[in-house]
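Folding Task

Wanted — backbone structure
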Amino acid sequence: MPKTARALTQLPPSTAAALEKLGADLAVSRLRRKESLRSWAVRLGVSVATLQRLEAGDPSVGIGIVATALWLIQRDGELQSLAAPEYDRGAIEMDVRAATELGRARARASAEARAQRAKP
């Protein structure tokens, strides 16, 4: 039995569900195009077993294979924005917190400077 990466055993449930949906959606796309597992696997450059794992949402399928499957259904353009910094909510929230704290620090420093000038 192959060794499983720890990251795969710690996959968040919502992420696992999203991968399962992606795999199922890719299967539907293949079936709507009336492609067999074998012909679609050849087009992807993978074995039928790997394609079946992809369609089952197996998180160990390589990202390159997922990207190629998206390319086959003309959806690979979405990849370029998946992790774009402008959509990174966690980093944006950190930037806002840092800017807010900087604003507070500057306001305190300004108030202290005014108080120092006001002293006789």
Remarks:
- Residues 83-120 form one domain.
- Residues 89-118 form the longest helix (30 residues).
